[in-house]
Design brief:
By secondary structure, the protein is an alpha/beta fold. 37% of the residues lie in helices and 21% in strands. The protein has a six-stranded mixed β-sheet with strand order 3-2-1-4-5-6, with helices on both faces.
Length: 315
């Protein structure tokens, strides 16, 4: 497949780097201000080298990406809420041109799911979005394989930053602010960690899963969300006395989405440590399925993007 990639952050550049290993060719790569476009395939290393050196990716405008001959648009621009722009418009334009779209951007899938599906029905292209939930963990594809109708609920840990903080607080008896600063020093938490610690990032992922189960009907506004900022170290100490610990647990069903700190068995499946993520998928015919792994990172998330590309029909 010929890939056009919008977004040259960790995920976009990793997709560009790894695409040849999966048998695909990158014909366009754009960030917010410039692009490099070549229908015969771009020189990825050279383009990223220019960007790393402080120069433009290339001499083209990002809009030129849509004019090249590509098969799949990779939407890897930053997630935005509400109208989910400009990501939604990028998807809309590609589908109008009968191209496939693979999203790593959570915004359009969480906030405007029904509109995406309506656009897809009018297009010869398809949309896929495994990378929006759980990085490399195959969550959406597992639900698809089981069929959404046979899945009653999905729950688990889908934010590595919050999980790292809670793990360290429990293991070392440290306070929230101390561990947050440590996480920021290690690069596990962003300089502004709000989306991670207030539950928004996890909620977006579980909203997407609720939309998959119910075929739409949910946005972030419909989710019941509580973060971890107010959890005292003493709460984790008390939980440990009963063989329990606290994790930021999300749950998606056809009825709604909930995300918040929950008590879980200290040695149970949902008590993953560090930045590890886990999802528990409750099915009618296959029982409870558990998928665990790294839920973020450029190469990890790129594997989900490229796996989705491999599932698309040839144009």
């Amino acid at each position: 497949m010929r890939l056009a990639i919008l977004g040259a952050g960790a995920v976009g550049r990793s997709v560009a780097d790894l695409a040849p290993e999966y048998g695909h060719e990158v014909v366009a790569l754009a960030d917010s201000s410039s692009a490099v476009v070549d229908p015969d395939g771009i020189a990825v290393d050279a383009a990223l080298g220019r960007k790393d050196g402080g120069d433009a990716l290339g001499a083209s405008d990002p809009e030129d990406v849509f004019e090249t001959d590509y098969d799949v648009l990779i939407e890897a621009t930053p997630t935005t809420l509400g109208e989910a722009q400009p990501g939604f418009s990028h998807v809309e334009r590609a589908l109008a041109d009968d191209r496939h779209v693979v999203l790593a951007n959570k915004g359009p899938v969480a906030e405007r799911y029904e509109e995406l599906r309506a656009l897809e029905t009018e297009s010869a292209g398809s949309i896929r979005f495994e990378a929006t939930v759980g990085g490399a963990i195959p969550v959406c594809s597992t639900i698809e394989d089981c069929t959404p109708q046979s899945v009653s609920a999905v729950r688990g840990v889908l934010n590595g930053t919050a999980n790292f903080i809670l793990t360290r607080m429990a293991a070392e008896g440290l306070g929230y602010e101390h561990v947050l600063a440590e996480a920021q020093d290690l690069g596990v938490a962003e300089a502004d960690p709000t989306f991670d610690v207030d539950g928004t990032d996890a909620a977006l992922k579980f909203v997407i899963l609720a939309n998959v189960l119910a075929d739409g009907g949910f946005s972030l506004d419909d989710a019941e969300v509580t973060g971890i900022q107010d959890i005292p170290g003493s709460a984790l100490d008390l939980a440990a006395e009963d063989g329990l610990t606290i994790r930021l647990i999300g749950e998606a069903t056809r009825e709604g989405v909930r995300v918040g700190p929950r008590l879980v068995p200290e040695n149970g499946a949902l008590a993953v440590t560090g930045t590890r993520n886990i999802v528990q998928i409750e099915t009618k015919n296959a029982g409870s399925l558990h998928n665990s792994g790294r839920g973020a990172g450029g190469p990890e998330t790129a594997t989900a993007v490229l796996s989705d590309v491999g599932r698309l029909p040839l144009r």
